[in-house]
Amino acid sequence: MDIKDTYRTLKTSPPPILFKDKNSKFFGYAFPVITETEIKEHIEVLKKEHHAARHWCYAYQLGTETISYRANDDGEPSNSAGMPIYGQIQSFDVTNILIVVVRYFGGVKLGVGGLINAYKTAAQMILEASNIIEKTINIDYIITFEYKNMNTVMRIVKEKQLNITNQKLELNCQITISVRKKEADMVAQTFEKLYEIDIKRVH
């Protein structure tokens, strides 16, 4: 079975885009995010920046294997804003992302169909303007060993081109490695076979 161990996300936040419809202005923003705290902070900043706007609608998705998402209409008719934005997150197959569309009302009602189209288009435009990158889903392991076994451990790290994210090299040594999910079991087994070397998965 082929394990899916990559995901798509934003490299950085692109400059905002503007979509206009019947005098209403829709500013689209996209941010790479990992936590709900970051999401709240971005929305607060936009509310200050666009304090005269009428709605700050958004959708986000977090996670690579366990997904959490939310779509918020922020006072627009139900499912006319947040879900169309979230639909674009799904259609571009990206995660760890927040998209906010800020609306300035132009005096002409767009109707639910018009709103759905406007929010969807603003989300699509900001995603098209984004630099989307593919990242690997990694599993971290802590390897514990005595100093005398350092060469053995480091030889495997070098052979398998493992990424060390943390190390404490004293009489008792500990290194943390980050391994691509596809290769994780194979790497763990390599270390498990060794005498006096302990490998544990970090949860």
Description:
By secondary structure, the protein is an alpha+beta fold. The protein folds into two domains: 6-134, Impact, N-terminal domain (Ribosomal Protein S5, domain 2), CATH 3.30.230.30; 138-201, 2-Layer Sandwich (Alpha-Beta Plaits), CATH 3.30.70.240. It contains five helices and eleven strands, in the order E-E-E-H-E-E-H-E-H-E-E-H-E-E-H-E. The strands form three sheets. The protein has a five-stranded antiparallel sheet with strand order 2-3-6-4-5, with helices on both faces. A four-stranded antiparallel sheet has the order 9-10-8-11. The protein has a two-stranded antiparallel sheet with strand order 1-7. A hairpin with a 5-residue loop joins strand 4 (55-62) and strand 5 (68-72). The longest helix is centred in the middle third of the chain and has 18 residues, at 111-128. The two termini are 23 Å apart.
Q: Topology of this structure?
A:
Blueprint: E1 6-10, E2 17-21, E3 24-32, H1 36-49, E4 55-62, E5 68-72, H2 82-91, E6 97-104, H3 111-128, E7 132-136, E8 138-146, H4 150-159, E9 163-169, E10 172-180, H5 181-192, E11 197-201
Antiparallel strand pairs: 1-7, 2-3, 3-6, 4-5, 4-6, 8-10, 8-11, 9-10
Organism: Allotamlana fucoidanivorans
Family: Belongs to the IMPACT family.
Pfam families: Impact_N (PF01205)
